[in-house]
Amino acid sequence: MKPNHISQKAEEKDIKEILSKYLEYWYIFLLGLIIFIGAAFLYLRYEAIPQYQITSTLLIKDKDKGEGASKFESFAELGLIKPSRNIEDEIGILTSAGLMEVALSELSLQVRYYVEGKVNEVEVYGKDLPVYVEINNSLPFSHGQRLSITMLDNKRFELTEEGKDNKKTYTYGQEILKPYGTFTVLSRFDDLSSEIGNTIDMEFISIQDFAEYYSEQLEVEPVNETGSLIAVSLLDPIPERGEDIVTKLIEVYTRKAVEYKNRLAISTIEMIDDRLQHLTSELTGVEKNVEQYKQQNDLTDVNSNAAIYLQKASQAKSELADYQTQIDVLNSIENYLKQQGPNASLVPSSLNIQDATLVGLISRFNELQLEKRSLLRTTPEDNPLVVEIDEQLSDLRNNILENLNNIKDGLIITRRNLMANSNRLESQIRNVPSAERELLAINRQQSTKQELYLYLLQKREEEALSLSAPVSNTRVIDEPRSGNFPVSPNKTSIYLGAIIFGLFLPFSIVYIKDNIDDKIQSVDDIQRLTNVPVLGKIAHSNDKEIIVATEKNRTPVAELFRLIRFNLKFISAGKTNKIILITSDMKGEGKTFFTINLGTSLAISGKKVIALSFDLRAPKLMQDMGLSNKVGVTDYIINHDTKLEEIIVPSPSVENLFFIDSGSTPPNAGELMLSERIGKLLNELKERYDYVLIDSAPVGKVADAFALAPHIDSTIFVVRRNYSNKARLVTIQDIYENKKLKYPMVVLNDVEFSKADTYGYGNE
Predict the structure, then answer these.
(1) Is there a single domain that holds both residue 44 and residue 57?
(2) 155 near 170, Cβ under 8 Å?
(3) Which residues on neighbouring strands pair with residue 716, listed in sequence order?
(4) Which parts form a coiled-coil structure per UniProt (predicted)?
């Protein structure tokens, strides 16, 4: 359990360290929240347009989803073609841009009205408008123009065109002619005294573009999978306008459906009337023939055998006539399609032709013709939509003609068989006296034509009845109405998103900064990249004095040197630690500053300390102290007559602190560092002093420090926050792993401390 407990503690520590690192930048997170929440507030307050949802429910009688037929619909079972209706088709019609365009035109929504708000323009509609515009739709009109109307009194107003400095006064009801169109401004109220001086901006828009927009906003879907209820919903920033649009759209949809049924009924009646005219003349001629024949032959009855034969023959002839009628109807439809060509109107009913495929093709052909007519009201014939419908009509015309030929071929074969049977019966009838036979033949012809006449007359009456009493297949269940509150924009989601982005962006900035930054920023960076023990941290100092670790100084930097002094004693407890090598990876990391102040801190604690400037190539120790000496380390190594006392310089300000300069600059510092005199020098100093501090050259530049490895007891690497490169810690780790220098330790220099990070610091 103990290892798990330790692991848990370590994880908690890691989390706390991560949180602590990000909390250092709390002001960035606060600024991010303020900016994004403020932006969200401004967007919701001045930019976002609230959208209200308008909903309605319709019942559409679907032939595929239930039998709710009225008594008029039952007539369709007798043979008339009725338009096919199913939920998917009706949804497609309701959401079409053409139907929406008709609805918007009837509502006169070619003009949008605005009034000046506190920040932005506010669109107004309906009862909120004291005046409105009527466009003369019979004349050409171009969209995109903006005007301003300033109400002067109950009769007059001032009109200003956008981009033009041409104000002109008109009276309400006066027709205004402009290059872009003709329109009239009307007053909604008799008394406009409360509106005098107010200005309303208006914009003429493209009704086609407006229809496309609302068609995209409109949602129509079945309430359930088994019923015929559909839900209609629309988003609009003005609830009243949205309700008017949905109401008008349903009205136009219902009216168009009835008009389509009426057109089909009229077309069918016209075809039946044409056929009845021919039958009437034929029936009249047959009746005259019967009368004349009876008068000539004095006939009143036929014998029973002849009656039986004639009855069968009559039945066969009746069937032949029926098939011939069907063939005639098919020929009529075929001729109708061929004569009409590409601009054919609605195809009439196929009467008693009961082929489902033909019925479906004709219904689809008629639907496309109506859709084409609707488009041609507002679009030219070369419009891609019209061209596409023409292509579909052409394909349907070919399919109908092919289907007609197939059905007609089948009817001709059946008729041929019936004719053969009829001829056989005729041969049997020849035995009957010719006069009676001829009379019965005439009567049979009369009966056949009379039955066909009565059949067509019945169908005409049925179609006329449906035309005189049209019944809509649509019923409004829930009238269009809007919600009390807008459905968008969602304030909760926007504010939540603002909070998320307000935190995420600062987090990303801090994360990227932390990962891109290649400088050492904290002890954590050192511990994460190396296994070298950290001796301590040195605070950033604004003091211009080189010596800060004095006895009376209570600044953070002085206190931290005291802490390092304690840590040094703690680490070296039980071990000899007199000669300490102080180095760094590169120039400028503060090793000389550290050497001087560590020596000062040790000296004021009663220890006798000497600091050597062993950076023979670029010495700084004595210069920083403001001291000088003609002889130093190099002189002692080269000249055996040089005495130790000659090169030692006492500190003028710190008791028990001494210095040795680097001496003359040698031409061969690398070879000089291998001299045996160095060992002798350090041994003598070791005997005389409690601590020997060696300010060495940077290990990342030259190998001078490694030459001192046999003589030292421990090593202190100085790295500087926000200056030393993280990648250079590899050098220190290599020294630690391969034991190139004894007991290496790291000190982080120039650390920024906040007041919360200090305790009792301050000058006393």
Answers:
(1) no
(2) no
(3) 582, 745
(4) 269-333
* Verdict on whether the full-model pTM lies above 0.85: no
List pLDDT tens digits, range 446-498: 677 777 777 777 777 776 766 655 666 778 888 888 888 888 787 888 889 88
* 137 and 285 both lie in a single domain: no
Distance in angstroms (rounded) separating the CA atoms of residues 331 and 329 = 5
How many CB atoms are located within 10 Å of the residue 619 CB? 21
Beta-strand relationship, 168-171 and 156-161: antiparallel
Among the candidates 182, 207, 237, a domain finishes at 237
User: Rounded to 5 degrees, what are φ and ψ at 148?
Assistant: -125, 135
Please tell me whether residue 639 adopts helix, strand or coil conformation: coil
- The SS3 assignment for 586 reads coil
Could you tell me the two tokens for 16? 């706390």
Q: How far is CA 691 from CA 122, 570, 611, 630, 657, in A?
A: 83, 15, 8, 24, 10
Give yes or no for a contact between 697 and 614, defined as CB atoms under 8 angstroms apart.
yes
Residues 197 and 78 in one domain: yes
Structure tokens at 445: 């012809």
Chain mean position to CA 707: 67
Residue showing tokens 């096919």 = 84
CA distance 359 to 752: 89
Q: Which residue has the tokens 């503060």?
A: 590
pLDDT at 610 over 90: yes
* Residue 56 near residue 476 (C-beta atoms within 8 A): yes
